[in-house]
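User: Can you help me understand a structure? I only have the sequence.
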Amino acid sequence: MPDTSSARLIATLTERLGARHVRADAEALAPHLVESRGLYRGHALALVEPGSTAEVAFTVAACAQARVPVTAQGGNTGLVGGGVPFGGIVLSLNRLNRLRAVDPLGASMTVEAGMILADVQAAAEEAGMLFPLSWAAEGTARIGGGIATNAGGLAVLAYGNARDLVLGLEVVLADGRVWNGLKALRKNNAGYDLKHAFIGSEGTLGIITAATLKLFPRVLSRSVGFVGLPSARAALALFERLRAGADRGLTAFEYIPRFGLEMVLRHGIDVRAPLEGQHAAYALVELSSPRPGADTRSELEALLAEAMEAGLVEDATIGGSAAQDAALWRLREMLPEVQKAEGGSIKHDVSLPLSRLADFLEEAEAACLAAMPGLRPCPFGHFGDGNIHFNLTQPIGMDKAAFLAEWARFNDIVHGIVERMDGSIAAEHGVGLIKRDELARTADPVGLDLMRRLKAALDPHDLLNPGKVVALSNDPPPALPV
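Assistant: Let's start by predicting it. Here is the structure, written out as C-alpha coordinates:
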Protein backbone atom coordinates (compact mmCIF):
# COMPACT_ATOMS: atom_id res chain seq x y z
CA MET A 1 0.00 0.00 0.00
CA PRO A 2 1.46 3.41 -0.93
CA ASP A 3 2.37 5.83 1.86
CA THR A 4 0.51 9.11 2.33
CA SER A 5 2.70 11.19 0.00
CA SER A 6 2.58 8.52 -2.71
CA ALA A 7 -1.18 8.26 -2.32
CA ARG A 8 -1.46 12.03 -2.75
CA LEU A 9 0.66 11.83 -5.90
CA ILE A 10 -1.52 9.08 -7.38
CA ALA A 11 -4.63 11.10 -6.54
CA THR A 12 -3.16 14.19 -8.21
CA LEU A 13 -2.29 12.24 -11.36
CA THR A 14 -5.69 10.54 -11.41
CA GLU A 15 -7.46 13.88 -11.20
CA ARG A 16 -5.55 15.16 -14.26
CA LEU A 17 -5.34 12.02 -16.43
CA GLY A 18 -8.39 10.06 -15.31
CA ALA A 19 -8.65 6.73 -13.52
CA ARG A 20 -8.34 4.76 -16.79
CA HIS A 21 -4.82 6.07 -17.25
CA VAL A 22 -3.48 5.83 -13.69
CA ARG A 23 -3.52 2.20 -12.54
CA ALA A 24 -2.05 0.73 -9.38
CA ASP A 25 -3.56 -2.77 -9.61
CA ALA A 26 -1.33 -5.80 -10.06
CA GLU A 27 -2.94 -6.82 -13.35
CA ALA A 28 -2.16 -3.49 -15.01
CA LEU A 29 1.37 -3.32 -13.62
CA ALA A 30 2.47 -6.91 -14.29
CA PRO A 31 3.52 -6.62 -17.97
CA HIS A 32 5.50 -3.47 -17.19
CA LEU A 33 7.66 -4.98 -14.45
CA VAL A 34 9.68 -7.41 -16.56
CA GLU A 35 11.29 -7.40 -20.02
CA SER A 36 11.04 -10.19 -22.58
CA ARG A 37 14.36 -11.72 -21.54
CA GLY A 38 13.06 -11.97 -17.96
CA LEU A 39 16.34 -11.22 -16.20
CA TYR A 40 14.88 -8.73 -13.72
CA ARG A 41 11.51 -8.29 -12.07
CA GLY A 42 10.74 -4.80 -10.83
CA HIS A 43 8.05 -3.08 -8.79
CA ALA A 44 6.19 0.22 -9.07
CA LEU A 45 3.57 2.34 -7.36
CA ALA A 46 1.47 2.84 -10.47
CA LEU A 47 1.28 2.74 -14.24
CA VAL A 48 0.63 6.18 -15.73
CA GLU A 49 -0.41 6.56 -19.39
CA PRO A 50 -0.36 10.22 -20.46
CA GLY A 51 -1.88 11.07 -23.81
CA SER A 52 0.06 14.22 -24.67
CA THR A 53 3.34 15.97 -24.05
CA ALA A 54 1.54 18.30 -21.65
CA GLU A 55 0.34 15.32 -19.62
CA VAL A 56 3.84 13.82 -19.60
CA ALA A 57 5.18 17.15 -18.34
CA PHE A 58 2.48 17.34 -15.66
CA THR A 59 3.27 13.79 -14.51
CA VAL A 60 7.02 14.35 -14.35
CA ALA A 61 6.63 17.69 -12.55
CA ALA A 62 4.32 16.12 -9.97
CA CYS A 63 6.74 13.25 -9.43
CA ALA A 64 9.64 15.68 -9.10
CA GLN A 65 7.79 17.64 -6.43
CA ALA A 66 7.03 14.41 -4.55
CA ARG A 67 10.57 13.04 -5.15
CA VAL A 68 9.13 9.93 -6.78
CA PRO A 69 11.16 8.21 -9.54
CA VAL A 70 9.85 7.88 -13.10
CA THR A 71 10.73 5.04 -15.47
CA ALA A 72 9.62 5.73 -19.04
CA GLN A 73 8.53 2.80 -21.21
CA GLY A 74 7.54 2.34 -24.82
CA GLY A 75 7.01 -1.13 -26.25
CA ASN A 76 9.04 -2.70 -23.42
CA THR A 77 11.09 -4.69 -25.93
CA GLY A 78 14.43 -3.90 -24.27
CA LEU A 79 16.94 -6.59 -23.38
CA VAL A 80 19.24 -5.10 -20.72
CA GLY A 81 16.90 -4.15 -17.88
CA GLY A 82 16.80 -0.52 -18.94
CA GLY A 83 13.02 -0.24 -18.81
CA VAL A 84 12.40 -2.23 -15.63
CA PRO A 85 11.18 0.02 -12.77
CA PHE A 86 12.41 -0.39 -9.22
CA GLY A 87 9.92 1.80 -7.40
CA GLY A 88 8.12 4.96 -8.40
CA ILE A 89 5.97 5.45 -11.47
CA VAL A 90 6.02 3.57 -14.77
CA LEU A 91 5.28 6.18 -17.43
CA SER A 92 4.02 4.51 -20.60
CA LEU A 93 4.35 6.59 -23.76
CA ASN A 94 2.16 4.33 -25.86
CA ARG A 95 -0.74 6.80 -26.09
CA LEU A 96 1.60 9.38 -27.65
CA ASN A 97 1.28 7.70 -31.03
CA ARG A 98 0.39 10.45 -33.47
CA LEU A 99 2.00 11.42 -36.75
CA ARG A 100 2.41 15.18 -36.43
CA ALA A 101 3.82 16.11 -39.84
CA VAL A 102 5.37 14.75 -43.03
CA ASP A 103 7.45 16.88 -45.39
CA PRO A 104 8.46 14.93 -48.54
CA LEU A 105 10.30 17.93 -50.01
CA GLY A 106 12.30 18.42 -46.83
CA ALA A 107 12.60 14.63 -46.45
CA SER A 108 11.47 14.67 -42.83
CA MET A 109 8.61 13.63 -40.60
CA THR A 110 7.66 14.44 -37.02
CA VAL A 111 6.20 11.64 -34.91
CA GLU A 112 5.35 11.12 -31.27
CA ALA A 113 7.48 8.80 -29.18
CA GLY A 114 4.82 6.13 -28.67
CA MET A 115 4.32 5.45 -32.37
CA ILE A 116 5.11 1.85 -33.27
CA LEU A 117 8.22 1.64 -35.45
CA ALA A 118 6.40 -0.30 -38.18
CA ASP A 119 3.75 2.44 -38.28
CA VAL A 120 6.47 5.07 -38.68
CA GLN A 121 7.83 3.09 -41.62
CA ALA A 122 4.33 2.79 -43.12
CA ALA A 123 3.67 6.53 -42.77
CA ALA A 124 6.91 7.29 -44.58
CA GLU A 125 5.97 4.84 -47.35
CA GLU A 126 2.55 6.47 -47.75
CA ALA A 127 4.39 9.73 -48.39
CA GLY A 128 6.52 8.03 -51.06
CA MET A 129 9.59 7.97 -48.83
CA LEU A 130 11.61 5.54 -46.70
CA PHE A 131 12.34 5.55 -42.97
CA PRO A 132 15.07 2.89 -42.77
CA LEU A 133 15.36 2.10 -39.05
CA SER A 134 14.38 -1.58 -38.77
CA TRP A 135 14.80 -4.51 -36.41
CA ALA A 136 12.98 -7.72 -35.52
CA ALA A 137 10.68 -6.19 -32.86
CA GLU A 138 9.53 -3.31 -35.09
CA GLY A 139 5.91 -4.46 -34.86
CA THR A 140 5.81 -3.71 -31.12
CA ALA A 141 8.81 -1.46 -30.43
CA ARG A 142 8.14 2.29 -30.20
CA ILE A 143 10.21 4.91 -31.99
CA GLY A 144 10.91 6.78 -28.75
CA GLY A 145 12.53 3.73 -27.20
CA GLY A 146 14.61 3.19 -30.32
CA ILE A 147 15.92 6.74 -30.09
CA ALA A 148 16.44 6.56 -26.33
CA THR A 149 18.66 3.50 -26.83
CA ASN A 150 20.25 4.69 -30.10
CA ALA A 151 19.06 1.46 -31.71
CA GLY A 152 20.94 0.02 -34.66
CA GLY A 153 19.19 -2.78 -36.47
CA LEU A 154 19.39 -4.18 -39.95
CA ALA A 155 20.21 -1.20 -42.19
CA VAL A 156 22.99 0.61 -40.32
CA LEU A 157 25.42 0.01 -43.19
CA ALA A 158 23.61 2.40 -45.49
CA TYR A 159 21.67 4.68 -43.14
CA GLY A 160 23.31 4.63 -39.72
CA ASN A 161 21.99 4.15 -36.19
CA ALA A 162 18.95 5.93 -34.74
CA ARG A 163 21.20 8.87 -33.86
CA ASP A 164 21.97 9.41 -37.53
CA LEU A 165 18.27 9.50 -38.42
CA VAL A 166 17.14 12.19 -35.95
CA LEU A 167 16.92 15.87 -36.88
CA GLY A 168 15.26 17.09 -33.70
CA LEU A 169 13.61 16.10 -30.43
CA GLU A 170 10.98 17.19 -27.98
CA VAL A 171 11.99 16.20 -24.44
CA VAL A 172 10.41 16.50 -21.00
CA LEU A 173 13.12 17.30 -18.46
CA ALA A 174 13.38 15.99 -14.91
CA ASP A 175 11.63 19.06 -13.47
CA GLY A 176 8.74 18.85 -15.93
CA ARG A 177 9.87 21.57 -18.32
CA VAL A 178 9.61 20.80 -22.05
CA TRP A 179 12.51 21.37 -24.42
CA ASN A 180 11.24 21.90 -27.97
CA GLY A 181 14.07 21.05 -30.33
CA LEU A 182 11.97 19.66 -33.19
CA LYS A 183 13.27 21.87 -36.01
CA ALA A 184 13.68 19.90 -39.24
CA LEU A 185 17.02 21.47 -40.14
CA ARG A 186 20.00 19.77 -41.75
CA LYS A 187 22.27 22.62 -40.67
CA ASN A 188 21.92 24.30 -37.29
CA ASN A 189 25.02 25.46 -35.44
CA ALA A 190 23.16 27.76 -33.05
CA GLY A 191 24.76 26.50 -29.86
CA TYR A 192 25.22 22.98 -28.55
CA ASP A 193 23.39 20.21 -30.40
CA LEU A 194 21.38 19.17 -27.36
CA LYS A 195 19.51 16.28 -28.96
CA HIS A 196 22.59 14.09 -28.78
CA ALA A 197 22.55 14.24 -24.98
CA PHE A 198 19.19 12.47 -24.96
CA ILE A 199 19.69 10.02 -27.83
CA GLY A 200 21.06 6.84 -26.26
CA SER A 201 20.52 8.08 -22.69
CA GLU A 202 17.88 5.39 -21.99
CA GLY A 203 15.49 7.81 -20.30
CA THR A 204 17.98 8.81 -17.60
CA LEU A 205 18.40 12.45 -18.70
CA GLY A 206 14.96 13.29 -20.08
CA ILE A 207 11.88 11.67 -21.57
CA ILE A 208 11.60 11.89 -25.36
CA THR A 209 8.02 12.71 -26.36
CA ALA A 210 8.43 13.43 -30.10
CA ALA A 211 11.09 13.36 -32.80
CA THR A 212 11.71 14.85 -36.22
CA LEU A 213 13.20 12.13 -38.39
CA LYS A 214 15.14 11.99 -41.65
CA LEU A 215 13.47 10.36 -44.64
CA PHE A 216 15.12 8.88 -47.73
CA PRO A 217 14.12 8.03 -51.30
CA ARG A 218 12.01 4.89 -51.46
CA VAL A 219 13.81 1.72 -52.56
CA LEU A 220 12.83 0.71 -56.11
CA SER A 221 15.05 -2.34 -56.54
CA ARG A 222 16.12 -4.80 -53.84
CA SER A 223 17.87 -8.17 -54.00
CA VAL A 224 18.67 -10.53 -51.15
CA GLY A 225 21.28 -13.27 -51.27
CA PHE A 226 22.20 -16.10 -48.91
CA VAL A 227 25.81 -17.19 -49.10
CA GLY A 228 27.73 -20.24 -47.84
CA LEU A 229 31.27 -19.46 -46.69
CA PRO A 230 34.33 -21.39 -45.53
CA SER A 231 35.04 -19.15 -42.52
CA ALA A 232 34.36 -15.90 -40.72
CA ARG A 233 37.48 -14.46 -42.34
CA ALA A 234 36.01 -15.25 -45.75
CA ALA A 235 32.85 -13.41 -44.65
CA LEU A 236 34.90 -10.29 -43.91
CA ALA A 237 36.69 -10.54 -47.24
CA LEU A 238 33.33 -10.91 -49.01
CA PHE A 239 31.99 -7.88 -47.18
CA GLU A 240 34.97 -5.81 -48.27
CA ARG A 241 34.46 -6.90 -51.88
CA LEU A 242 30.71 -6.16 -51.85
CA ARG A 243 31.22 -2.79 -50.19
CA ALA A 244 33.73 -1.79 -52.84
CA GLY A 245 31.54 -3.06 -55.68
CA ALA A 246 28.14 -1.83 -54.50
CA ASP A 247 29.15 1.19 -52.41
CA ARG A 248 26.09 2.53 -50.55
CA GLY A 249 23.90 0.01 -52.34
CA LEU A 250 24.98 -2.63 -49.81
CA THR A 251 22.26 -2.19 -47.19
CA ALA A 252 22.74 -5.37 -45.14
CA PHE A 253 25.44 -7.91 -44.40
CA GLU A 254 24.37 -10.35 -41.67
CA TYR A 255 26.62 -13.13 -40.39
CA ILE A 256 25.19 -16.50 -39.32
CA PRO A 257 27.32 -19.42 -38.04
CA ARG A 258 26.58 -23.02 -38.99
CA PHE A 259 25.14 -23.76 -35.54
CA GLY A 260 22.85 -20.75 -35.86
CA LEU A 261 21.35 -21.91 -39.15
CA GLU A 262 21.01 -25.45 -37.80
CA MET A 263 18.95 -24.12 -34.88
CA VAL A 264 16.70 -22.10 -37.18
CA LEU A 265 16.06 -25.09 -39.44
CA ARG A 266 15.44 -27.32 -36.41
CA HIS A 267 13.07 -25.05 -34.49
CA GLY A 268 11.95 -22.31 -36.87
CA ILE A 269 8.49 -21.95 -38.35
CA ASP A 270 7.99 -21.95 -42.13
CA VAL A 271 11.69 -22.21 -42.97
CA ARG A 272 13.70 -24.34 -45.38
CA ALA A 273 17.39 -24.84 -46.06
CA PRO A 274 18.52 -22.15 -48.49
CA LEU A 275 21.54 -24.05 -49.83
CA GLU A 276 22.54 -27.64 -50.47
CA GLY A 277 25.19 -29.02 -48.14
CA GLN A 278 26.68 -27.41 -45.04
CA HIS A 279 29.13 -24.58 -44.67
CA ALA A 280 31.19 -23.25 -41.78
CA ALA A 281 29.52 -19.86 -41.98
CA TYR A 282 26.81 -17.98 -43.84
CA ALA A 283 25.99 -14.41 -44.77
CA LEU A 284 22.72 -12.79 -45.70
CA VAL A 285 23.42 -9.85 -48.00
CA GLU A 286 21.11 -7.21 -49.42
CA LEU A 287 21.62 -4.71 -52.21
CA SER A 288 19.08 -1.97 -52.79
CA SER A 289 18.71 1.14 -54.91
CA PRO A 290 16.29 4.08 -55.21
CA ARG A 291 17.26 4.61 -58.86
CA PRO A 292 14.60 3.96 -61.53
CA GLY A 293 15.73 1.07 -63.71
CA ALA A 294 18.33 -0.21 -61.27
CA ASP A 295 18.99 -3.96 -61.53
CA THR A 296 20.32 -4.99 -58.14
CA ARG A 297 19.82 -8.69 -58.91
CA SER A 298 22.24 -8.64 -61.85
CA GLU A 299 24.66 -6.56 -59.79
CA LEU A 300 24.54 -9.01 -56.89
CA GLU A 301 24.89 -12.01 -59.21
CA ALA A 302 28.02 -10.52 -60.75
CA LEU A 303 29.59 -9.64 -57.41
CA LEU A 304 28.94 -13.09 -55.94
CA ALA A 305 30.25 -14.81 -59.07
CA GLU A 306 33.50 -12.87 -58.76
CA ALA A 307 33.73 -13.79 -55.08
CA MET A 308 33.13 -17.45 -55.91
CA GLU A 309 35.94 -17.39 -58.46
CA ALA A 310 38.18 -15.88 -55.79
CA GLY A 311 37.40 -18.76 -53.42
CA LEU A 312 35.53 -16.66 -50.87
CA VAL A 313 32.08 -18.10 -51.56
CA GLU A 314 31.26 -21.82 -51.66
CA ASP A 315 27.59 -21.55 -52.64
CA ALA A 316 24.93 -18.86 -52.94
CA THR A 317 21.31 -18.24 -53.80
CA ILE A 318 19.43 -15.04 -54.61
CA GLY A 319 15.74 -14.52 -53.92
CA GLY A 320 13.63 -14.18 -57.05
CA SER A 321 10.62 -12.47 -55.49
CA ALA A 322 9.56 -10.46 -52.47
CA ALA A 323 8.31 -13.68 -50.86
CA GLN A 324 11.63 -15.43 -51.43
CA ASP A 325 13.53 -12.41 -50.09
CA ALA A 326 11.35 -12.49 -46.97
CA ALA A 327 12.01 -16.22 -46.56
CA LEU A 328 15.76 -15.62 -46.61
CA TRP A 329 15.45 -12.78 -44.11
CA ARG A 330 13.36 -15.03 -41.86
CA LEU A 331 16.37 -17.32 -41.43
CA ARG A 332 18.24 -14.44 -39.81
CA GLU A 333 15.38 -12.83 -37.92
CA MET A 334 14.32 -16.06 -36.18
CA LEU A 335 17.77 -16.71 -34.73
CA PRO A 336 17.28 -14.94 -31.37
CA GLU A 337 13.97 -16.71 -30.78
CA VAL A 338 15.00 -20.28 -31.68
CA GLN A 339 17.92 -20.20 -29.26
CA LYS A 340 15.39 -20.61 -26.43
CA ALA A 341 14.56 -24.11 -27.66
CA GLU A 342 18.16 -25.20 -27.07
CA GLY A 343 18.21 -24.13 -23.40
CA GLY A 344 19.89 -21.24 -21.66
CA SER A 345 21.76 -18.58 -23.60
CA ILE A 346 24.34 -16.15 -22.23
CA LYS A 347 24.31 -13.11 -24.50
CA HIS A 348 26.77 -10.38 -25.36
CA ASP A 349 26.00 -7.40 -27.61
CA VAL A 350 29.47 -6.19 -28.59
CA SER A 351 31.15 -4.30 -31.39
CA LEU A 352 34.68 -4.46 -32.73
CA PRO A 353 36.75 -2.66 -35.34
CA LEU A 354 36.23 -4.63 -38.54
CA SER A 355 39.96 -5.31 -38.69
CA ARG A 356 39.72 -7.24 -35.38
CA LEU A 357 36.39 -8.99 -35.87
CA ALA A 358 37.72 -12.34 -37.11
CA ASP A 359 40.46 -12.33 -34.46
CA PHE A 360 37.83 -11.69 -31.80
CA LEU A 361 35.61 -14.55 -32.95
CA GLU A 362 38.49 -17.01 -32.97
CA GLU A 363 39.90 -15.95 -29.61
CA ALA A 364 36.58 -15.54 -27.81
CA GLU A 365 35.20 -18.88 -29.00
CA ALA A 366 38.40 -20.68 -27.98
CA ALA A 367 38.47 -19.01 -24.56
CA CYS A 368 34.81 -19.80 -23.84
CA LEU A 369 35.15 -23.43 -24.94
CA ALA A 370 38.22 -23.80 -22.74
CA ALA A 371 36.22 -22.44 -19.81
CA MET A 372 33.32 -24.82 -20.46
CA PRO A 373 33.82 -27.75 -22.84
CA GLY A 374 30.61 -28.62 -24.67
CA LEU A 375 29.49 -25.00 -24.80
CA ARG A 376 27.87 -24.05 -28.12
CA PRO A 377 28.88 -20.56 -29.32
CA CYS A 378 26.48 -18.79 -31.68
CA PRO A 379 27.97 -15.45 -32.77
CA PHE A 380 25.74 -13.71 -35.29
CA GLY A 381 24.66 -10.29 -36.39
CA HIS A 382 25.50 -7.13 -38.23
CA PHE A 383 28.97 -8.04 -39.50
CA GLY A 384 29.24 -5.04 -41.78
CA ASP A 385 29.07 -2.50 -38.94
CA GLY A 386 31.19 -4.55 -36.54
CA ASN A 387 28.30 -5.54 -34.24
CA ILE A 388 28.22 -9.17 -33.14
CA HIS A 389 25.72 -10.80 -30.82
CA PHE A 390 28.17 -13.19 -29.20
CA ASN A 391 25.72 -15.64 -27.69
CA LEU A 392 26.62 -18.83 -25.86
CA THR A 393 24.17 -21.73 -25.76
CA GLN A 394 24.39 -24.17 -22.86
CA PRO A 395 25.99 -27.59 -23.31
CA ILE A 396 23.54 -30.36 -24.13
CA GLY A 397 22.17 -31.88 -20.93
CA MET A 398 23.40 -29.15 -18.58
CA ASP A 399 21.00 -27.62 -16.09
CA LYS A 400 19.79 -24.25 -17.41
CA ALA A 401 19.97 -22.43 -14.08
CA ALA A 402 23.48 -23.72 -13.43
CA PHE A 403 24.55 -22.50 -16.84
CA LEU A 404 23.03 -19.03 -16.47
CA ALA A 405 24.77 -18.70 -13.10
CA GLU A 406 28.01 -18.54 -15.12
CA TRP A 407 26.95 -15.29 -16.85
CA ALA A 408 29.38 -13.08 -14.91
CA ARG A 409 32.30 -15.41 -15.58
CA PHE A 410 31.68 -15.39 -19.32
CA ASN A 411 31.18 -11.62 -19.24
CA ASP A 412 34.69 -11.31 -17.84
CA ILE A 413 36.09 -13.53 -20.58
CA VAL A 414 34.26 -11.98 -23.52
CA HIS A 415 34.36 -8.35 -22.41
CA GLY A 416 38.03 -8.65 -21.53
CA ILE A 417 38.83 -9.62 -25.11
CA VAL A 418 36.55 -6.87 -26.44
CA GLU A 419 38.33 -4.23 -24.34
CA ARG A 420 41.76 -5.44 -25.41
CA MET A 421 40.72 -5.15 -29.06
CA ASP A 422 39.33 -1.59 -28.62
CA GLY A 423 35.71 -2.65 -28.96
CA SER A 424 32.54 -1.82 -27.05
CA ILE A 425 30.66 -3.98 -24.55
CA ALA A 426 27.35 -2.31 -25.51
CA ALA A 427 26.86 -2.09 -29.27
CA GLU A 428 23.14 -1.50 -29.84
CA HIS A 429 20.98 -2.84 -26.99
CA GLY A 430 22.16 -0.25 -24.49
CA VAL A 431 23.63 -0.43 -21.00
CA GLY A 432 20.51 -0.53 -18.85
CA LEU A 433 21.05 -2.35 -15.59
CA ILE A 434 22.81 -5.49 -16.74
CA LYS A 435 25.89 -3.64 -18.04
CA ARG A 436 25.87 -0.67 -15.68
CA ASP A 437 28.66 -1.88 -13.43
CA GLU A 438 30.62 -3.23 -16.40
CA LEU A 439 30.50 0.25 -17.92
CA ALA A 440 31.79 1.74 -14.67
CA ARG A 441 34.65 -0.76 -14.68
CA THR A 442 35.65 -0.44 -18.33
CA ALA A 443 34.88 3.15 -19.34
CA ASP A 444 37.52 5.85 -19.57
CA PRO A 445 37.50 7.46 -16.09
CA VAL A 446 37.21 10.98 -17.46
CA GLY A 447 34.37 9.94 -19.76
CA LEU A 448 32.57 8.22 -16.89
CA ASP A 449 32.95 11.35 -14.74
CA LEU A 450 31.47 13.47 -17.54
CA MET A 451 28.50 11.10 -17.80
CA ARG A 452 27.86 11.34 -14.07
CA ARG A 453 28.19 15.13 -14.12
CA LEU A 454 25.71 15.34 -16.99
CA LYS A 455 23.26 13.11 -15.12
CA ALA A 456 23.63 15.19 -11.96
CA ALA A 457 23.14 18.45 -13.89
CA LEU A 458 20.00 17.38 -15.76
CA ASP A 459 18.50 15.17 -13.05
CA PRO A 460 19.95 16.35 -9.72
CA HIS A 461 17.55 14.27 -7.62
CA ASP A 462 18.16 11.10 -9.67
CA LEU A 463 14.48 10.57 -10.45
CA LEU A 464 14.59 9.60 -14.15
CA ASN A 465 15.16 5.86 -14.54
CA PRO A 466 17.48 5.82 -11.51
CA GLY A 467 20.23 3.24 -11.27
CA LYS A 468 20.48 2.69 -15.02
CA VAL A 469 23.45 3.41 -17.33
CA VAL A 470 25.55 5.23 -14.70
CA ALA A 471 25.25 4.87 -10.95
CA LEU A 472 25.25 7.91 -8.70
CA SER A 473 26.51 7.59 -5.14
CA ASN A 474 23.07 6.93 -3.67
CA ASP A 475 22.06 4.21 -6.14
CA PRO A 476 21.36 0.72 -4.79
CA PRO A 477 23.23 -2.23 -6.29
CA PRO A 478 21.61 -3.95 -9.27
CA ALA A 479 18.68 -6.20 -8.51
CA LEU A 480 19.34 -9.89 -8.72
CA PRO A 481 18.12 -11.67 -11.86
CA VAL A 482 14.73 -13.35 -11.59
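Now, to help you interpret it: The domain at 343-420 is CATH 3.30.70.2740 (Alpha-Beta Plaits). The chain is about 35% helix and 20% strand. Let me know which part you'd like to focus on.
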